[in-house]
Amino acid sequence: MNFIIILFGAPGCGKGHLWSVLQEKLHKLFNPRDVGYISTGNLIRDEIARKSELGLQIAELVQSGFLISDNIVDSLIANALKAKQTIKVLDGYPRTNSQFDSFVSQIDEDTEVIAVFRDTPEDIILSRIAKRRVCKDCKHTHTSDNACCPKCGGESIVREDDVVITSRIEEFKKHTLPIWNRMSEIGITLHFVCDESSEAITKDITSLLIE
Fold this sequence. Notes:
CATH architecture: 3-Layer(aba) Sandwich
Number of helices: 8
Number of strands: 8
CATH superfamily: P-loop containing nucleotide triphosphate hydrolases
Strand order of the largest sheet: 2-3-1-4-8
Oligomer: single chain
Structural class: alpha/beta
Shape: globular
Largest sheet: 5 strands, parallel
Helix content: 40-55%
CATH class: Alpha Beta
Number of domains: 1
C-alpha cells in the first residue's frame, strides 16, 4: 500500500512546522528513502533554477506578473508523483477544482490518501506572519526574534509572498477552501484546529500508516 498525505490549510497556518515534525517521525518509523515531500513552490523554483524549457516559460510568467496555469502545475506534480517512495507528502496542492480533478485521475487503487486540514484563524495567521523571516542564504524559516538566521548566520529577510499575505488568504478562501469538502471523496480526512500541536497531529497521521 502506498500513501499520499495532503497538508491542507491557508498560507501561514503552520503547515511548514507540521511537516518538519512529521518528517522526523516518518524517518524514525520508515526508511527515509521511502518518504517524499512534494511542494509546488519547491518544484517551481527548482524548474526555474534548472533553466529547462518549462523553467524558462515559468520564469517569464512570474516576471510578467502572470499566474502559473493549472496545466503547468499539474504537469510538475504528475512527474513528482512518479517517484518510487511509498509515502508522499503533498504541500500546496491541489489548490483549485481543476487541480483536484487532475490529482484524482492519478490515484491508483493501491494508494490511500490522507488529507489533513490545519484550520487556523486569520488573525493568528497575520500575527504569525508579521514575525516570520527567511534566511536569504539557506532559506531556513524563523522568527523576527533572530537578528540573523539561527541555522547558518545568514541575513534574515521577509518572504516575498508574505508581503501579499492578505490577498493570498483571500485566494485560499475563494478557490482552495471549497476543495476540502471534496477530500472525503478520495480518502480519509483529518481536521485539526489551530491549538492542536504538530506533535499531536503527527501522532494521529502516523497511526493510520501503521494500522
